[in-house]
Design a protein that fits this description.
Elements lengths: L5 H25 L8 H26 L1 H7 L9 H11 L6 E7 L6 E6 L7 H13 L13 H19 L1 E5 L5 E9 L4 E8 L11
Antiparallel strand pairs: 1-2, 1-3, 3-4, 4-5
Helix pairs in contact: 1-2, 1-6, 2-4, 2-5, 2-6
Length: 212
């Protein structure tokens, strides 16, 4: 990441804001508050949103590893396939995947005193790849000679996937190639509930951090 890192942080936050909007459109359909008017197109629309969300997670990782990635891939501005981006970033930075965390708040000061890694209930890297491929299947027309798709089962899968994505991103950290630097992200920060992305550098003992 360049010394003038604010541009990268802003781009990362922009990707996360778009993810929030797409998550909300999925929830509206799952909660039966909105519909395309046809169950099959509801499922296809949701699958498209999941694919876009995963691509945005991958592209945001590209932002956080921009300089190193661009050195390996001169045409990186045209990259969009989530699985390929993750594969290539992993070669550069094996610890690239978002680290979901929980904020520990002091009950007296209401300040965040530490963060701890979330152990379960989030979208893992393996699940990321599975969901990406699973959604791709439904974005193609159904062969009339193949077995009829069970559309209803996908709604159950969607209800499992969406909280895992939310848990992955709600509070998360990105380890940069420099082991002493991370990006810390809060998806609903402050009174405006906007995404906030911060560059943290390890310099010793860390005191209280207010990310709310």
């Amino acid at each position: 990441m360049s010394k003038s890192y604010q541009e990268e942080l802003n781009k990362y936050a922009s990707c996360m804001e778009e993810i929030k909007l797409r998550v909300n459109t999925i929830l509206l359909i799952l909660d039966k508050k909105n519909s395309t008017g046809y169950k099959y197109t509801d499922v296809e629309f949701i699958c498209l949103q999941f694919r876009k969300i995963l691509e945005l997670i991958a592209l945001a990782n590209l932002v956080s590893n921009k300089e190193e990635y661009s050195q390996k891939h001169s045409n990186f501005v045209n990259h969009y396939h989530a699985k390929h981006i993750l594969r290539d970033i992993e070669k550069i930075n094996p610890n690239f995947y978002p680290i979901p965390t929980i904020q520990i708040v002091d009950p007296k000061t209401k300040k965040v005193t530490q963060t701890v890694n979330l152990e379960r209930g989030f979208l893992t890297k393996d699940e990321f790849l599975f969901v990406y491929d699973e959604c791709a299947e439904l974005l193609h027309a159904e062969n009339p000679f193949s077995e009829k798709r069970n559309i209803d089962k996908y709604f159950k899968k969607f209800k499992d996937w969406i909280p895992k994505i939310i848990n992955l991103l709600k509070h998360h950290q990105l380890q940069l190639i420099d082991i002493n630097k991370q990006i810390w992200v809060v998806m609903n920060s402050g009174t405006d509930k906007k995404v906030r992305a911060f560059l943290f550098e390890k310099i010793g003992k860390v005191g209280e951090v207010d990310l709310e």
